Amino acid sequence: MSEQFPVRKFVAPEIILGNGSRNLVGQYAKTLHGRNVFLVSDPGILKAGWTGEVRDELEKQGQHVVLFDNVSPNPRISEVAKGSQEYQDNECDLLVAVGGGSPMDCAKAIGAVVTNRCHVLDLEGVDEVAIPGPPLICIPTTAGSSADISQFAIISDENKRRKLGIISKAMVPDVSLIDPEVTLTMPPNLTAETGIDALSHAFESYVSNASSHMTDMYALEATKMIARYLPLAYEEPGELRFREKVMLGSVYAGLAFSNASLGLVHSMAHSLGGYLDYPHGECNAKLLEVVVAFNHSAVPERYSTLEAAMDGSGSCATTGLESIRSRLRQFTEGLNMDLGLSKMGVKEDSIPYLTENAFNDACHVTNPRPVKREDIARLFHEAL
Amino acid sequence: MRRSEDEVRAEALRQKIIGLGETSHRKSYYPQLQEQIDELHATLKALQDSENKYRTLIENVNVGIFRSDIKEKGRLIQANPAMCRILGYEDEGAILEADPDDFYQDPQDRRVIIAELKKEGKIKDKKVRMRLRSGGTILGSMTLTALYDDKGDISLVDGVIEDITEKEMKEEALRQANKKWNLLSSITRHDINNQAMVLDGYLTLAMERTNDPEVRKLLSKARSSVQSIERHVAFAKDYQDIGINAPRWFDLRESLINALIPLDKASLSVKLEVDDYTIFADPMIGKVFYNLAQNVVRHSKGSVLVISTKEEDGHLVLSFQDNGVGIRDKSRLFMRSNSTSGFGLFLSKEILSITGVDIRETGEAGKGARFEIIFAEGQHRSSAASQGLPKE
Ligand SMILES: [Fe+2]
After folding, report:
1. pTM (2 decimals)?
2. At what angle do helices B285-295 and B344-353 cross, to 10 degrees?
3. Considering only CB atoms, which chain B residues are within 8 Å of A11?
4. Which residues of A177-201 are buried (b: 16+ CB within 10 A; e: fewer)?
5. Chain A residues within an 8 Å CB radius of B32
6. Within chain A, how many helices (H) and strands (E) appear?
7. Do both A102 and A239 map to the same domain?
8. What ipTM was assigned to the predicted interfaces of this complex?
9. A223 plus A370 within the same structural domain
10. Are residues A210 and A359 both part of a single domain?
């Protein structure tokens, strides 16, 4: 086994990228032998009009459509259960998800629950999905989660206030219709949150101990594009050119992290998001810097490369930890993201629970520096 | 260095995420697709079962089944085991190699049959003298159906052959026996009638020679007995004819008119109110009609007879209504032993029952008799449906 050229797998859905690609949804539903589509979305996207447009497109191609928009920003176990029941009651045969990470993750979980006839909790972990779900077409409306590309689905356990991760190649969607136009309706704060999520994906997959040449290439390219264009899209939400670049960056980050997996930022963010029901991107924003500090000594050159990518240069000059920390802080401040978990309402006494859940999350197993419970607890303290 | 449990677990998960092991599956299997494949398999299996079923059936039946290729000089391309057995070939291979002319005692028959098939497209129960491989003869009954190519020419012929040699011999023997029996019966009747006539003559003479009332009474009774013998003989003659000729279709009105010609029109007026129908019946049906009309005069003492038709639930009801006294005791009406009406009604019922036609009496005593003959579905056709029927 060569450390220089390790054996790695690379899995991706069929990706159709470009403005207007959403209009192919009817054609693809037909190609995948759908007749009765279960359309998963959320109220915000429904209001923005995208869900209705997709529905019309599907019906134009003779599909019967059952709409399910009962999805919270952090999709819940009960919502997956309700969705899979409705899917079966209506005898649907195809899933279409329109929205951000929430409806897409929810749709992925619904599909797996339907075919495996189980509770969503039974699917938690890696490779626990024995039978893939029905055909799934994703139309992402945010540029960040990359749920339309990845083998991950994250669901909130609302009773235990934690998140569970379903990680399996079987969760990779069949078709991803990536259409930058639909991100035009995103408000600036959502643009920033989801963009930071994408940047975290790029960072974590690049330093992951399961990374490969292919994922490295995507991770670095993603870092460059997001660092350059996310602030511009944030300033000028209506400018399609910037939206395209941010979307592309997000896709690259998705391809990278789906195959190289993530790290401690996501383990802690999942724990935090599950506990406080806080937006995923915002959790990442508050944790990225402290985790970089924790990891830096394990892979300093990798972080230097990432910093150079953020600056748009190919320079390999080794810069220090402080340099990249300030670069990240500057970036998040530019997007008006407040740092400090205490502002989110995290208290000292919640930290043991947050720590336990983060430690049980599978993302950090590919973190470049091995993680112990006390490390996580310390980092939560630091991030307060 | 010993690794902790957490480290071992983390490494195992990491390997799974990298996904080179057996548990890592790409999404390439859809249950829906599998369902469709399963369905297809089930259909194919059913098709196979059905084919096996028919194959077994064709291989096990006792009639010869074959397919021949008209364009290949009528050579057989398929023949079941019974076909081989009937014509004396050891197996299908042998019979497929045979020259089709060899199946006929007179090869000319084959050409006649093909010519007829070209004209009609179908041939049913054709009796043909067939030639066995050994040279012997059997009588075959052949049913053929032509199959056409896309130009409309006959390409293949599907056929069924039954060996009716034995059946035919039995029927012939039966015919002969019947003939002898009829002859014997008719001679005997004739002789009995002659003797009865002679006897009646002597009885008449004897009555003229005596004035003794007691003796005359006895002689009169003796003459009644002679007449009774004559009636029995007449019945035997009629009964013998029933069922001898095959039933067929008759025009209802026409057969009624023909049947009622011998009737004494002075004592009975008949009103025919029947619609256009053809009926399926024994050729002796006319005797039934005549008998019913005759009964009006003889037993019901009526002067008017109305014959009419109506349909009830697909049945055709032909009714004979008279204005006589009607029938009080109906219990023994159609029985052979009912001597008051002679054997007429019993005979009528027998004639009708050959084709399954029913008869009943539904009149009210005192208001005339009403006989109803009921032709079930399939035993009658309205005139529209009977158009194009060959005229008998
Ligand atoms: Fe994420």
Report:
1. 0.59
2. 150
3. 19, 26
4. bbbbbbbebbeeebbbbbbbbbbbb
5. 33, 93, 134-135
6. 14, 9
7. no
8. 0.79
9. yes
10. yes
**Tokens linked to A75:** 């999709």
Q: Where a domain ends, among A157, A182, A207?
A: A182
Per-residue confidence (pLDDT) for residue A2, from 0 to 100: 43
**Nearest-5° angle of CA A208, CA A209, CA A213?**
80
**Cα–Cα distance, A145 to B110 (Å, whole number):** 83
Give Cβ neighbours of residue B131 (< 8 Å, ≥ 6 apart). B102, B103, B104, B105, B137
Partner residue facing A126 (CB), from B7, B17, B20: B17
**One-letter identity of residue B100:** P
Quick: pLDDT tens for A190-224: 999 999 999 999 999 999 999 999 999 999 999 99
Range scoring the smallest mean pLDDT among A316-320, B130-134, B278-282, B359-363: A316-320
Q: Give the residue from A182, A198, A230 where a domain finishes.
A: A182
Considering only CB atoms, which chain B residues are within 8 Å of A169?
19, 24-27
Residues A177 and A257 in one domain: no
In whole angstroms, what is the distance from residue B27 CA to residue A169 CA?
7
Separation between Cα atoms, residue A368 and residue A208, nearest integer Å: 5
Please give the full DSSP string across B20-35, using - where no structure is assigned: -STT---S---HHHHH
CATH class, domain B61-163, is alpha beta
Mark yes or no for CB contact B29/A171 under 8 Å: no
For residues A178 and A190, membership in a common domain is answered with no
Burial class (CB in 10 A: 0-12, 13-18, 19+), A317: exposed
Query: Is A9 in contact with B24 (CB distance < 8 Å)?
Result: yes
| In chain B, where the domains are located | 5-59, 61-163, 169-241, 248-385
Asked if residues A97 and A103 have their Cβ atoms less than 8 Å apart, the reply is yes
Taking CB atoms and an 8 Å limit, are A8 and B23 in contact across chains? no
Calculate how far, in angstroms, residue B22's C-alpha sits from the geometric centre of ligand 1: 27
Q: What local confidence, expressed as pLDDT, does residue B265 receive?
A: 77
How far is A63 from A136, CA to CA, in rounded Å?
A: 15
A80: domain CATH number is 3.40.50.1970
